Amino acid sequence: MIVVFIFSMCGRYPSMATSSLAPPEVPMELHAGNRDRLLTALHAHLSAAASPPRGLALLQGGEEQTRHCTDHLELFRQESYFAYLFGVREPGFYGAIDIASGQSILFAPRLPPDYAVWMGEIKPLPYFKDRYKVDLVFYVDEIVQVLQDRFSQHGKPVLFLLYGKSTDSGNYSKPASFEGIEKFDTDLSTLHPILTECRVIKSGMELALIQYANDVSSEAHIEVMRQAKPGMKEYQLESIFLHHSYRYGACRHCSYTCICATGENRNCDTSINIITTNHHLVPVVVLSTVSICSILHYGHTAAPNDRTLNDGDMALMDMGAEYNFYGSDITCSYPINGKFNSNQAIVYNAVLKAHNAVISHMQPGLKWVDMHKLAEQTILESLKNEKIIHGDIADMMARRLGAVFMPHGLGHLLGIDTHDPGGYPEGLERPKEPGLSSLRTIRELKEGMVITVEPGCYFIDALLRPARDDPISSKFFNWEEIEKYKSFGGVRIESDLYVTAQGCKNLTNCPRETWEIEAVMAGAPWPPRASVTKAENGLPKA
């Protein structure tokens, strides 16, 4: 009896999770290469400005944080720019790169003797020099003396500090600060845009880590898919993903808070609404009843993945593991009972067709805003074929009706951060039209970029209501058919792509076709036996 009960709680079939994952060693040459790219870019910038190639790029790493006023230390994760250049896992460090010589310097915190009692061995400075493959290591309290003694041959050295705005969060990076910094000249404008642009194009070693994070996440998503069944809680699906990623993939961190959205939510929640302005539908925030699957960032503390899964629900699982700072971002949508009904299949296949259309068109030189519009158009065409909407697709696109069904952007740059920086470099402005205003980048694709492709189709009452109330927009909708999907929620399909010279490579390996998903949920192996091996997947070797 006990054995039967355990199996029934674990999923449709007994859980026999296995894994072929082997966490790779991370060469510090990866971060040395990142430093080299920054040096090359700084030299080019200073040369163009007729400035001497002197000074130091100086960054301050992250600090450990306690939970509010308590002494409980939250699990530390390094500041991303600092991680990119130095790969340091520990808190409290500073790092510098001498622009003239290329020397790399770490400054480690001087720990008190009782650290060894409570926290473990106090590592000597040579340990950090060897581990992180830098040229010099000193203590943080020696920064002023070291910079003055070693880097003042041409007068007071200029410190290029990291300060700039994230176009995703609106927050500003924190420039390095230490006692005595006033003794040096500082530059707050040069480093951030140059270093951000370095992060946009990934090296072969960076891609290998992103691929591994995708391998882990793909495998974990499939394990969730196999174990999901009616009667479980959303947080159980989240826990399966987290467990598999950590146990088999050595991924202690996730790239972002897991989104495990299923079925219909009858509670009041903040959602998106729209008003008509200049013949476009413009998003505003309202309070409305929404389906969980149409809450785009469900899973946060106020909506904590705690609903019970019901037979007939669609699941939208948006989860990604992180390995050695580099992340993944994958979304799978499927029916909890393992079988698509006709309405679920219609919406799912509309999104899948958009997902595949974008991937088949991607190549260097294409504008991301055009890829977003391609996804919108493809979804609208599919909905028209099913009599959910009617009329001229070009007219719908002109009125931005694609944003009624897909209010978010098509995708974003991915790397050390889920929303990697560089989406809007100087000179690019965010569009203002509905849907397009949510794009995290409108750049042209370049070889070496890693970007997510995540089209979605949602039936959000707060978006449909204003469209119905608008006399021009309303005529495009078959409202009788729309009513059938009101409690449906939505579908999102998300894969991580890197741009190659000829096109792109999908780093994600999850079942996507409806028949593949149903087969995997019924116990079929994935990937199929005849799948391409990793050695043949087109990833660059360095």
Please tell me about this protein's structure.
The protein is α+β, with helices and mostly antiparallel strands. Helix 2 crosses helix 3 (about 80-85) and helix 8 crosses helix 9. Residues about 1-15, about 265-290 and about 530-540 have low confidence and may be disordered. The chain starts with a helix and ends in a 21-residue tail after the last helix. The longest helix has 24 residues, at about 205-225. The protein contains 16 helices and 19 strands. It has helices at about 1-10, 30-50, 80-85, 115-120, 125-130, 145-150, 190-200, 205-225, 235-250, 340-360, 370-385, 395-400, 400-405, 460-470, 480-485, 515-520; strands spanning about 55-60, 95-100, 105-110, 135-140, 160, 185, 255, 260, 270-275, 280-290, 315-320, 320-325, 325, 330-335, 450-455, 455-460, 490, 495-500, 505. It folds into two domains: about 30-200, Creatinase/prolidase N-terminal domain (Creatine Amidinohydrolase, Chain A, domain 1, 3-Layer(aba) Sandwich), CATH 3.40.350; about 205-270 and about 285-520, Creatinase/methionine aminopeptidase superfamily (Creatine Amidinohydrolase, Alpha-Beta Complex). InterPro entries: Aminopep_P_N, Creatin/AminoP/Spt16_N, Creatinase/aminopeptidase-like, Pept_M24, X-Pro_dipept-like. It catalyses: Xaa-L-Pro dipeptide + H2O = an L-alpha-amino acid + L-proline.
Strand percentage, roughly?
Answer: 15-25%
Q: At CATH's second level, what is the architecture of the largest domain?
A: Alpha-Beta Complex
Total beta strand runs:
19
Query: Structurally, how many domains make up the residues?
Result: 2
Question: Helix proportion of residues, in percent?
Answer: 25-40%
Low-confidence stretches: 1-14, 265-290, 531-538
Distance between the termini: 54 Å
The CATH class of the largest domain turns out to be Alpha Beta
User: Any idea of the CATH topology of the largest domain?
Assistant: Creatine Amidinohydrolase
Widest sheet, order of strands: 4-3-2-1-5-6
Q: How would a crystallographer describe the biggest sheet?
A: 6 strands, mixed
Average pLDDT works out at 90
The CATH homologous superfamily of the largest domain is named: Creatinase/methionine aminopeptidase superfamily
Structural class: alpha+beta
Broad shape: globular
Radius of gyration: 25 Å
The count of helical stretches stands at 16
InterPro entries: Aminopep_P_N (IPR007865), Creatin/AminoP/Spt16_N (IPR029149), Creatinase/aminopeptidase-like (IPR036005), Pept_M24 (IPR000994), X-Pro_dipept-like (IPR052433)
Domain Aminopeptidase P N-terminal: 26-170
Subunit structure: Homodimer.
Family: Belongs to the peptidase M24B family. Eukaryotic-type prolidase subfamily.
